[in-house]
Design goal:
Length: about 300
């Protein structure tokens, strides 16, 4: 990994030198556009609509157009005059309970590496955050943009997660939910039973991106064929489509429970069943009167 930022965390009067690394990466397969007729790659040119000339990136400024159509052009010098946090400092604003941060606010994640020969302050801050089970709210400036961020610990490493501002989260207003009837007790009970039957501990390694795997397989087969194109006929598969609309919710829940039960029984080896007292008595009642001897032997087994 390559560091994208260097500075320090301002924790009161304590400075914690750190390096910042992007914590995640996109594994999606990249494509570029080509001419469908001959496969030639499509290139884009920055052309000025006024003079018609190509413009180098260094000669490009940014412009804002108001709702009334008025345009304002800003240069790098204009952006430099705007208020921003210290570019090489991550100031801690306050500590808040971790469960008070709505996950919808989380944006990008970054790893923080200690940038010191004696990372004692780094270890102290990480250990403190783990002990108090709280998250530090900080300001983080990257590429001339200041964000609110959450500082927490993951496997002994400080992690910085930028947060969206409150006005960046859209308000929700769905009239259909206001008019919807409340679930019936029977539906709730069956839904809870279904949830229990499908519950387990989260293990990310159990899940894979099937789309990317199949896409790579498609590309590998096309490369191996030497044609440079995908065999559409072989790649097309018909998948079973679910019902467009579930009319009877209880019946759908019942079918889901039955399907879940079948999956569980198929995945687990059948275990030998032990005879219960209730089953033994039931079998004894069904036996004819002339077969009294087996009941006596059954009673003997119970007393043994």
């Amino acid at each position: 990994m390559r560091s994208i930022w260097k500075g320090s965390i301002a924790f009161g009067l304590v400075n914690v030198p750190v390096k910042v690394y992007t914590a995640t990466e996109d594994h999606d397969i990249r494509f570029h556009q080509v001419h469908a007729k001959d496969g030639g790659r499509i290139k884009y040119d920055r052309v000025c609509q006024v003079c018609g000339n190509s413009v180098q990136y260094a000669d490009i400024d940014k412009a804002y157009v108001s709702p009334d159509g008025e345009q304002v052009v800003l240069t790098d010098a204009d952006f430099a005059t705007l208020p921003a946090a210290e570019k090489h400092e991550i100031p801690v604003l306050e500590f808040v309970p971790s469960d008070q941060i709505d996950p919808v606010l989380f944006d990008k994640s970054y790893y923080l590496e200690p940038d010191s020969t004696t990372p004692k302050a780094y270890q102290l801050l990480a250990a403190t955050l783990e002990r108090i089970d709280k998250t530090a709210l900080v300001h983080f400036t990257l590429r001339q943009k200041t964000r609110l961020a959450a500082l927490r610990v993951r496997d002994g490493v400080l992690v910085l997660q930028t947060l969206l501002w409150p006005d960046e989260v859209r308000a929700v207003d769905f009239p259909a939910l206001d008019e919807a009837p409340a679930p019936r007790p029977q539906e709730l009970k069956m839904a809870e039973t279904l949830v229990e039957s499908m519950s387990g501990d989260f293990d990310p390694s159990e899940y894979t991106d099937e789309y990317q795997i199949e896409l790579q397989k498609l590309l590998d087969e096309a490369i191996a064929s030497g044609s440079g194109k995908v065999d559409t006929a072989a790649a097309t598969e018909t998948a079973e489509q679910p019902d467009a609309e579930v009319v009877d919710l209880v019946a759908a829940l019942q079918r889901s429970l039955e399907a879940s039960g079948r999956r569980d029984s198929e995945s687990a080896a059948p275990a030998p069943k032990k005879a219960t007292k209730k089953a033994t008595k039931k079998a004894a009642k069904k036996a004819p009167a002339k077969k009294a001897a087996p009941r006596k032997s059954t009673a003997t087994r119970k007393g043994a």
